[in-house]
Amino acid sequence: MIPQLTTLSKLDDCLAFMKMPDNYSNNTDFAALKLHEMSINTPCISPTFRPSFYNLTIIANGSGNCMVGNESFELRSGNVFISRPDSFLSSNWSVIGKVYHICFSKDFVSEHLPEGINSIMNTDKMNGCTKTLSKETMLYLEQTFIEIFDENNSFLPYKEEMLANLTLCLLFTIQQQDKEKPYSKIEKNTSIVNAFRQNLDDNFNNLLTGKSSVVMRTKEHAKLLNLNENHLCKVISNSTNKTINDWINEKMVDEINYLLKHSDKSIKEIAALFAFTDVNHFYTYFKSQTLHAPGAIRKEFLNNKFNS
Predict the structure, then answer these.
(1) CA-closest candidate to residue 177, choices 232, 131, 228, 115
(2) Could you tell me the CA-to-CA distances from 47 to 14, 245, 301 in Å, in that order?
(3) DSSP 3-state assignment of 69?
(4) What is the bridge-based pairing of β-strands 30-34 and 89-105?
(5) What is the pLDDT of residues 248-294, one digit of tens each?
């Protein structure tokens, strides 16, 4: 079954579309949900959104998978899953035993968690990440979530500050469990890297919604950030171990792959979305990046879907 593709991106619109409870309505930048208490019949698959918000899922007992862009993430007991905004997202649950879910907007992050989320998700990750936690850590996250849930449903003063502090506690606890080697060069240039990534996401959002017909390259990104091109190239390469062109090409291929597999748009329409005026040029570009023709990617996916 292919997830229903929507054009929704805002937190309150996405939750309302899924008929989620309205206790988030007094705060359109933050939501805390106990999925296991929401009478969701499993197996189930969510619609596809292109959220403008982060998702943090704490899976004490459950199983499924989540597609973010063209990346698939396994959801299983003892894991947490975090996804970034501005990529197509859908989830497929086979078991929801005890699953806690937090959504928070980019505005909430910029105001309350300017470094918190990026200290958890390595700067070179495109769409999201999963982490396996110990039983003790999972118990602490559950207890902290209950505090967040209760606070979010309250009308206490300084509510958003409390939600931000408790969410930071979750994020830093998750970070402490991370055995991956941290990037020592990121901290100094975090603001530049974050701004570049936001501008990259905005550009692709505008392409997909028809608000732009130009793929921003290094020159445009440097101009938008009021930085020298060489300096920006050096910062991005040193901080993320990828060049600006790497980031642009990975984002482009991720978006194209998703649309080939999960939409009924023709290859010509997909090419036009990403400013390819010549379909042959689109074919050449995509094959140079993936070693596969776009039609072959779509055909293989559909064959696997109908034969599974």
Answers:
(1) 131
(2) 9, 31, 19
(3) coil
(4) antiparallel
(5) 999 999 999 999 998 989 999 999 999 999 999 999 999 999 999 99
